[in-house]
Amino acid sequence: MSRAQQDALSRTALGVFRLNGQFLAVSEKLAEPAGLTAAWWQVLGAVLREPLPVAGIARAMGITRQSVQRIADLLVREGLAAYEPNPAHRRAKLLTPTEAGRTAIRRIDPGHAELAALLQRELGGQEAFDETVRVLDRLSAALEAISAHVRDPQDR
């Protein structure tokens, strides 16, 4: 690997880490009036269209199953989500939002729409916004494709 490649990888990683922090901060602000945290919003959002098992949510979000399980249990305890039987797997129940959970998500929609409009304008329009999404998707797919080739530190 050349020094230029390493530098590009480092700049990319630092940029993504910074973006993650920025998205979490703005998400916390948007979610707070609805009585949610960014993490609760993220997990509820993952099951709005269809119920999913915790492992499926974790895969979609790229985080650990244990993290999602902890949040899912909190959402159920707060009455914002419920577990329902999974016909495909007896032990892996499906998480689904309750009406209270859907109502909380709807409370976020105005702020979410405003943020999307501001971000679109700041990026220079819808075409630029769409290109940003494509680049991030491409980066994610590339990392997924090569992740099997990255050695585990314990294997060295």
Automatic annotation (TrEMBL):
SUPFAM superfamilies: Winged helix' DNA-binding domain. Pfam families: MarR_2. InterPro entries: HTH_MarR-typ (IPR000835), MarR/SlyA-like (IPR039422), WH-like_DNA-bd_sf (IPR036388), WH_DNA-bd_sf (IPR036390). Residues 6-141 form the HTH marR-type domain. PROSITE patterns: HTH_MARR_2. Gene3D superfamilies: Winged helix-like DNA-binding domain superfamily/Winged helix DNA-binding domain (1.10.10.10). PANTHER family: MARR FAMILY REGULATORY PROTEIN, TRANSCRIPTIONAL REGULATOR, MARR FAMILY. This is MarR family winged helix-turn-helix transcriptional regulator. It comes from Streptomyces exfoliatus (Streptomyces hydrogenans). The lineage of its organism: Bacteria, Bacillati, Actinomycetota, Actinomycetes, Kitasatosporales.
